Amino acid sequence: MTAVSFVLVLIGVLLNAAAQLLLKAGTTAVGHFEFHLDNVLPVGMKLAFEPHILGGLACYVVSVVVWIMALSRVPVSVAYPMLSIGYIVNAIAAFYLFNEPLAGQKLLGIGFIVVGVWLVARS
To answer: Whole-model pTM?
Structure first.
């Protein structure tokens, strides 16, 4: 994998991870909700205009463009497993941003992901 290809894959992964974090921040700002026929429009409008959610959706759009560029250069069997890097980024970011737990078992799983991504990248 060339440096440009790796950077494209990494940017795609990080944009995807950022999208997830922004969507979580948006749903946190909106609060718990349930869709029912009587509240679909009010809740839908609240979600549609929440800045974090709009930012997350924008990250998704840009990540798709970057990902397509990456896939034009890297075999999908190598690129797709790299999305696992997003699990690592999101677990650590969620710990700091949302006070989500990062216990030993989760850290062990992240370790396995790191080893797996490293092995796939070297293939």
So the answer is: 0.85
